[in-house]
Amino acid sequence: MGTGSLFIPLATKKLAQNFAVGSGKWAKPLLGLAGAAALTAVVADAVGRANEQDSGQLPKYRLDPDNAEGPLGAVGAPQAADAEHQPNRKWARRVKKLAGNSVVGAVAAGGLVAASTWAAQTSAQKLFKKRVLPDLGNGPLALGAAILGWDFIYYWNHRFMHETRFMWAIHVVHHSSEKYNLSTALRQTWADSLGLFVPYGLLSLLGIRPEVIETSRQINLIYQYWIHTDAIRTIGPLEEVLNTASHHRVHHGVN
């Protein structure tokens, strides 16, 4: 699954376009589903809370300190009252479960539309047509700018993954490995497709061609792979300017 996640942005690109607002044929139905699920969640939660409160009224009685087997002066039988409210409690639990499932459905459907729309509107192909700088071509200058630009955006996206709850829920899979080795680099989540990231397509506004941006992505992935190891202790002076295996071990550390 980790290896497969490296190819998801390529494999799901056309599929995600179907959920983008304005161009996707499934966007409106999915938004309708998200709205219906959200409404169901609100109503079910309100009904569940009301039933829970109704069934939570216990009979008033005091315990006989000399007789721990039962109540003294109980207003009605506690067992009978509990049995009377049992159906309401079951109903409340079912309604609350419906509310929880509806929330998940609303977030998933709405999140898919939002992520797909964001990806479609900020794609490198689309932004390249609106570039503010001349076309840099396919030479070393363009590739160097793409590598540096990708690394800069990658840093902020990675930081947001650690500082926002939604993004951390996506990224935490990568940090769940009990051993730190090259396989950790492949421990990736498929839910990256649902994230709202700083778009790498912004590089196209600077005249960098989409295919050059894709090349920089591949170079970045290869570089990120080798730093997930404890076999390399240090690479000398380059430790001062590069993200290295020793730096990344600290990043993954839990002690």
Descriptive labels:
2 domains, 11 helices, mainly alpha, about 260 residues
Going by helix content, strand content and strand pairing, the class is mainly alpha
Percent strand: under 5%
Mean pLDDT: 84
Order of helices and strands: HHHHEEHHHHHHH
Rg, nearest Å: 27 Å
Uncertain runs with pLDDT below 50, 5 residues or more? 57-61, 72-76
Total domains, how many?
A: 2
Number of DSSP-assigned strands: 2
Largest sheet, spatial ordering of strands: 1-2
Distance between the termini: 28 Å
What about the largest sheet? 2 strands, antiparallel
Give a topology summary.
Elements: H1 2-5, H2 8-11, H3 13-17, H4 27-54, E1 62-64, E2 67-72, H5 78-121, H6 124-128, H7 140-163, H8 165-171, H9 182-185, H10 210-226, H11 245-252
Helix pairs in contact: 4-5, 7-8, 7-10
Describe the structure.
The chain is about 60% helix and about 5% strand. By secondary structure, the chain is mainly α. The protein folds into two domains: about 15-120; about 125-255, no CATH class. It has a two-stranded antiparallel sheet. Strand 1 (about 60-65) and strand 2 (about 65-70) form a beta hairpin. Helix 4 packs antiparallel against helix 5 (about 80-120), helix 7 (about 140-165) crosses helix 8 (about 165-170) and helix 7 crosses helix 10 (about 210-225). The longest helix has about 45 residues, at about 80-120. The protein is flat, with a radius of gyration of 27 Å. Residues about 55-60 and about 70-75 have low confidence and may be disordered.
